[in-house]
Write a structure and sequence with these properties.
single chain, 2 helices, about 140 residues, about 35% strand, five-stranded antiparallel beta sheet, alpha+beta
């Protein structure tokens, strides 16, 4: 199994990423590329801060970052925290998915007149508008 297919299995998982400088990031794994750069959403950063005084223990600081792109070269490890969350619609027992295609019907919209359906493929923008206005005046 290639590394690409292993990473594809982790899409939408909540993951913990450890970097070379000792910081840990916890976020939702959205994407990666051929350099293994990683995109995380809803990311939180955890880092250990050394004590200023000799007797005090180390403390851990937490920062909320949001969307993060991490360079693959700096990543040491990546582990799964929790699987993807499937949302359910009220009254519908099917899990979230790609959706159902349906036309948009809005009040006040007008269908495209039949005379405009013979548009030329090369016409766009201003040329198209000018030609349609000239046809309308005739």
């Amino acid at each position: 199994m290639s590394q690409k297919s292993k990473f594809l299995q982790w899409i939408d998982y909540r993951v913990r990423v450890t970097t070379q400088d000792g910081r840990m990031y916890v976020g939702t794994f959205l994407a990666f590329d051929k350099h293994l750069n990683v995109v995380l959403s809803d990311t939180e950063e955890f880092r250990k801060v050394k004590a200023k005084k000799a007797g005090e223990p180390e403390r851990e600081e937490k920062r909320i970052l949001g969307m993060v792109i991490m360079r693959g070269q700096s990543i040491i490890s990546m582990t799964a925290e929790e699987p993807p969350v499937l949302y359910e619609k009220k009254g519908d027992k099917t899990a979230a998915g790609p959706g159902k295609a349906a036309p948009i019907t809005r009040p006040g919209t007008m269908p495209v007149p039949v005379s405009y359906t013979h548009l030329r493929a090369h016409e766009t923008g201003r040329n198209l508008v000018c030609r349609l206005l000239l046809e309308k005046k005739k």
